[in-house]
């Protein structure tokens, strides 16, 4: 599931449509974003804790696959990890029994708030231990990835929880699972921590390159959009499109705080001069869906549009 596919799904407004696996995937990604925002808001008055994780899990699972598997509550039955349909005896890994989750998570929460000589090494341990406990019936992987930026923010390594390791973990999926399993099976903490830290470095470098390219693009387009549109609302429109690089015209008109006739003219000007492109043409009463290709190509890290 690419960023562009998720944003297109969101722009078309059918947020509860799970009629295809890809649409269901897009809904899960949007829930991930909503859960991260929920957690960030809660962290203004709550520490990173079991209470916060449960509340975040409730938002994460709302209305998506697994919605009936006790969102926000620890599992009360066994769980195991392995090929789809495997028995517990065939599982690659069996997490602790349900009766051990509460004490395990209490110890996990206490460790988050202990002093450590290296916070990133501590984070590697925090992530691995959460995945080993596997406290929920579903959504443990997504919550485990959410914990990474939340931990970094909680300990002052980030000002906002905007750091996503998912790209690195997906690109190195087999090694990720191998390293986690090696911790539980062989006690190979060194191998796991080294893998995790390489991921933090690689993702941070990639994020920095993308952020610098996005800032340069915005700077380049600020004067250009004023020249093209001759509008006092040009920069406001540009800022809105940077936040919503796939959208439909009615959304722009209703939320950009620009007079509707001016908003429509700006969209036409940006389309006619190549900043925007029609991704999905208008059909009947359905408006066209526009995309900002330059921005999304940077975000995707490839020529996606």
TrEMBL record:
The active site is at 134. This is Fic family protein. ATP binds at residues 138-145, 176-177. It holds the Pfam family Fic. Keywords: ATP-binding, Nucleotide-binding. Residues 48-198 form the Fido domain. One of its GO terms (molecular function) is ATP binding. PANTHER family: FIDO DOMAIN-CONTAINING PROTEIN, FIDO DOMAIN-CONTAINING PROTEIN DDB_G0283145. It comes from Nitrospirillum amazonense. InterPro entries: Fido, Fido-like_dom_sf, Fido_containing. PROSITE patterns: FIDO. It comes from the Bacteria.
